[in-house]
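Technical note accompanying the year-one report. For the benefit of new consortium partners, we illustrate the data format agreed upon in the data management plan: each record pairs a sequence with a structure-token string. No post-processing was applied to the example shown here.
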Amino acid sequence: MPLPHLLILVALLLAAGAASGQQCYADTHCPRGACVNQRCIPLRADGEACEAAAQCAAKVCTNRTCGTLRINGQSCGLGRDCLSKSCVNGVCVAGKGEAQACTLNRDCASGWCASGRCLAPKSNGAACDLPHECISKNCVKRVCTAPATPPGAPTPGGRK
């Protein structure tokens, strides 16, 4: 077969999509699957075992199991698990997640941007400079603390 005809045949086969197990070089060569280690593999459904997000139909592989993208308020392990791409303290949230690039505090789901990166809020007892650095939003004498109980309000023990 002349070389131009062979190239046309190869182009047609690639455009049609390689079958499962066939050689590939990109996911676009496998329209009903993914290209993993230069072989087309069928995409896996939610609940099936996976090693990488590329193997899953929803492109989410958490704890070696395919899943769907989660919405804000649902549990997550990593930002890629969330539709918002932001996972803070194990929950999908709006805004950028920890270590993502930021300019302003409001860019971050945690409300804290420092040195161009979103940071996780600090627990009570951790050193702080400003209230937004703390989970409690309360920084007293450079230490994150629980908010003071307003006069007349019930205390955690239930007494006024």
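Partners are asked to follow this layout when depositing records. The radius of gyration is 25 Å.
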